[in-house]
Receptor-like serine/threonine-protein kinase
Amino acid sequence: MASSFLHHLGLIPLIAMLCVTVAQTNYQKISLGRSLVASDDSDSWPSPSGEFAFGFHRLENQNLYLLSIWFDNIPNKTLVWYANGDNPVPKGSKVELTSDGLLNLKDPGGNIVWHPNPIPSGVAYADMLDTGNFVLVGTNTSNVWQSFDNPVDTLLPTQTLGVDISVSARTAAENFTRSRFELRLIRDGNLVLNTIAWPKENKYEAYYWSNTVDSPDGITGNKLIFNESGYLYIIKTEGDVVNVNSASTIPSFPIRDYYHRVTVDYDGVLRQYAHPKTPRNGEWTAIWFAPNDICSSMNGERGGGTCGFNSYCSPGSTDGSPNCQCLPGFRFSDPGNKFNGCKRDAIQNCDLGSLRPEDIYDMQELNVNWPNSTNYDSLESLSDVECSKSCLYDCQCVVAVNVDGACRKKKFPVSNGKMLQPNDGKAFVKVPISNTSSSDSYTRIDWPKRSPATFSMVAKLLLGSSVFLNLLLVVAILLIVLRSYDGRTKLHRPPSLLDNNLCTFTYQDLKVSTDCFKEEIGRGSFGTVYKGVLPLSGTLTIVAVKKLHNMSQDGEREFKTEASVIAKIHHKNLVRLIGFCNEGPHKLLVYEFMSNGSLARFIFGESRPEWGKRIQLAFEIARGLTYLHEECSTQIIHCDIKPQNILVDDSFTARISDFGLAKLLISDQSRTLTEIRGTKGYVAPEWFRNTRITAKVDVYSYGVMLLEIICSRKSIDMERQNEAEQILVDWVSDCYKARKLDKLVEDDEEARSDLKLLEKLVMVALWCIQEDPTVRPSMKMVLHMLEGVCIVSAPPSPFPDGSISWNRQLSWHPVRTSSSLSGPKFILDKLQDCL
Ligand SMILES: *[C@@H]1O[C@H](CO)[C@@H](O)[C@H](O)[C@H]1NC(C)=O
Ligand SMILES: *[C@@H]1O[C@H](CO)[C@@H](O)[C@H](O)[C@H]1NC(C)=O
Ligand SMILES: *[C@@H]1O[C@H](CO)[C@@H](O)[C@H](O)[C@H]1NC(C)=O
Ligand SMILES: *[C@@H]1O[C@H](CO)[C@@H](O)[C@H](O)[C@H]1NC(C)=O
Ligand SMILES: *[C@@H]1O[C@H](CO)[C@@H](O)[C@H](O)[C@H]1NC(C)=O
Ligand SMILES: *[C@@H]1O[C@H](CO)[C@@H](O)[C@H](O)[C@H]1NC(C)=O
């Protein structure tokens, strides 16, 4: 009762205010000779009411300080002015009002970092006023310098802004470096917001203006006033008053109860904020802002726009803040500043050799336009797909926008990007495929696959034949499915779903699904793989069930943890883990089934794929490996890259299998580990040396495999008549030295007519198989070399002249692999590095 009565009278704020002002401050005028030193418990110079203070503010998470003025009566010590935003000073720096009246900020070495400019003379003392204005007062009691005349990013009530004085935003919430957004009253009388360009402060087109021009030719007498009631207006030379903020909202936030400030925020928007004086731990609320939509207000031809080059702007939240995003395939130039544009590592390359653009690039679709970015070409009446394809096949093109009946190809860099309404047109962005991992949220355009004969035959059958034939076909397909179903798929119980769609199965389930492990489809170092059928999300799905050899019963939880880690890794060039079984000694992994078997079958078998297809597979493997090495949340070293571990899916895409398993088996010390280590012919020398295993072991194995793919033969082939050809890496390196690469592909007409690409691939492979791991490139670098993003320089000989190649040593001394150096303990230690 009583409290609501008090409330009625409006007494609560009043009482609270009394409490505030009773709080003692150690205010006094600052006399000559006084100083402050920057440290965590340094003093400050408060205003009489204690509402503002002048002193050192420590930057978040840094040992650096700003000489500044802040709201001192609220927990959030919001800065309203700072002297050295571009140049924070270390602990021990000092601000001093010298005995001869100079105000200096000095670093610990005594160098002057900042002083008022121009240097005022005749200073008697300094004073921190209750308005938030820090003043140097002359002997005749007038202010000879004041912070209000030298604003940074904030204006306070009672502050005025004259012509040509700029208020500049900081770079980020906690980065006080001056950014490119600024507010100014320009000479013709307009108050404008514009961006500027370093280093000469060229001004770009304004994105907000007050329409208060009064002096097109001379210098205006206009003034921007932030009066003590919180109103922001311009008094024109003739005395007219033009409101800048929305005057109607101000009475709801009376100065008696609220602190006010007007700030050019780091997102380029000018905002007026209010903060309740009580309770003190309230928040700053934006009560007015301009412009309304900064994205659409930036219309200049020059400069990068709100978000900078190669990005786009979309309206963010209700306080006018824009949302900046990079073009797909790009990332922020400066991760701490989303308004500074985006860049990419990969540069576009026009020399694709025998590759088609769609082997290297995806076109991604966005509802974005860059209306003020110059077009280098404009094509009338193309469909979206035609426009996208036209950009894909035009090596100069980065982005094409199909809008207003024309396909506009944009020059690089694109500037001032803006989100469009869904039906206003579409942009197509060319992105190197290595950048389109499955986590991308953009729509990817799938090109119709180049028709393999079978596909087009089925299509023709379906499209061109009678209903009867179609029926026959459907029945035939059903029969095939049912045959493999064969009554063995009744599950014990439905699989349970863990997070990220990882299923757990019982041993019984998997036994049934594989018909008692009947059909073996592969056998590797980690276990044996069987074909199975499981009802997954409502459809019968063929799966590959890998039964791990002789796992101990311990490590149940680790097994589950590792399996979940593997299951989280999704990439189009990796085989996906669907689920697992973890019942005592029975440890099984369930994978997607890859109908085309392993790469080994193709490159060493009868039906060698054509040259272009082989190269494409090599690219895909490189992308998968790059993903494992560099783009997963934790790096995964495969440790056993070889053609038997590369599978080929229905659409003839290469998919790496068995990744993450080395780690899984480490905890199981009961096993003999010798067979886990990489396979002879693909193993890097450091496996047998006393050095750490790094991702470079995979690079080595990839290099050997790349040569196998190029030459369609095994890396070690002792059957060959010509001894010089038995060890592939030796032979390749000899041919490379002798400049006779065509010998490597003697029976491959296509490869022989593409010697330039052949040479490039061989050079990349020779880089990969360098004996010194530090000389080998990273997988990402390998990918860049393959894609032509960077030039491939001549590789050094993988083995110094006279010495024997590593692979030949291995082939001569097979015993060496089981020497003491490679005993279980040693290998176990090495495997720790495969994490
Ligand atoms: C302090 O205020 C600033 C400006 O409104 C805001 O960005 C920041 O999040 C606030 N900090 C805290 C701790 O409330
Ligand atoms: C006080 O001195 C300053 C310079 O020292 C001068 O600019 C100003 O006009 C003087 N003010 C008065 C009221 O004399
Ligand atoms: C602050 O921003 C500037 C300009 O973008 C940048 O050079 C500087 O590194 C940033 N400082 C910090 C501490 O992030
Ligand atoms: C501030 O400006 C508003 C609007 O122009 C006016 O109503 C108010 O009286 C002014 N306050 C002061 C203290 O001058
Ligand atoms: C920039 O694009 C907008 C929107 O199409 C247009 O209104 C404006 O005139 C353009 N500005 C320039 C300088 O071409
Ligand atoms: C694009 O790929 C490059 C090189 O692989 C990588 O550094 C960059 O982070 C990727 N960018 C995005 C947005 O995924």
